[in-house]
Amino acid sequence: MIYLVRHGQTAFNRDGRLQGHVDSELTDLGLEQARRVGERLRALVGEEMGWRIVASPLGRARTTAEHIARALGGAAVEVHAELTEVSFGAWDGRLREELRTEYPDAFSPTGYMFTAPACETYEAVCDRLTAWLAGLEPEPGRRVIAVSHGVSGRVLRGLYAGLSREAALALPVPQDAVFRLAGGLIERIEA
Fold first, then answer.
1. What is the DSSP string of 74-94?
2. Burial (0-12, 13-18, 19+ Cβ within 10 Å), 122
């Protein structure tokens, strides 16, 4: 089983900036979201041993994972580069509204994610996340809590469930929920 979490709200999220590989701090709301997600996960896994907590190397995901680890009794957080957010290339750190004005055709519900100059490709993201999934212990013994990002989390859920690119990129990306990936199914659990 994998419990997949998106990091808590950041200053860039609040301001409407694309983050990609650029990092920004969690806001007070983001810290509260991370705390609540940790409490929810503690209720879900209880005293069960053997859970690994893994996170993207970006600070916003690591900070969220550290809050979860504290809620679970101080478990160590492993960093996995495969969980990193998609690079938006030249658009990393840019305001969405400015980009919509400059590139109106690129902003369909899923279009901006892979259309920026020098951005990471969908195929490259799939390759690294497929490799990460393949490296995990098989179900049902798998016990992983993973903290990732909006786009990479969508792609990961899509790969796990066998969704099309369009369906995966249209998935919701809440910062106050947990997704349980088990038995080929995905369940959203509110925090």
1. SPPEEE-GGGPPPP-GGGTT-
2. middle
Closest CA to 55 of 18, 90, 99, 3: 3
pLDDT in tens, 50-97: 899 999 999 999 999 999 999 999 889 999 999 999 999 999 999 999
Please indicate whether residue 7 is annotated as part of the active site: yes
Contact 152, 84 (CB under 8 A): yes
Q: 158, 154, 155, 148: which is closest to 173 by C-alpha?
A: 154
Longest dimension (CA), the chain: 52
Catalytic residue among 67, 80, 82, 85: 85
Q: Please state the domain extents for the chain.
A: 2-190
Q: Which residues face 97 on adjacent strands?
A: none
85 as an active site residue: the answer is yes
Q: Which of 7, 67, 80, 149 does the annotation list as catalytic?
A: 7
Q: Tens digits of per-residue pLDDT, 10-51?
A: 999 999 999 999 999 999 999 999 999 999 999 999 877 789
Helix (H) or strand (E) holding 99: helix 96-102
C-alpha 100/C-alpha 128 separation (Å) is 29
Write down the architecture of domain 2-190 according to CATH.
3-Layer(aba) Sandwich (3.40)
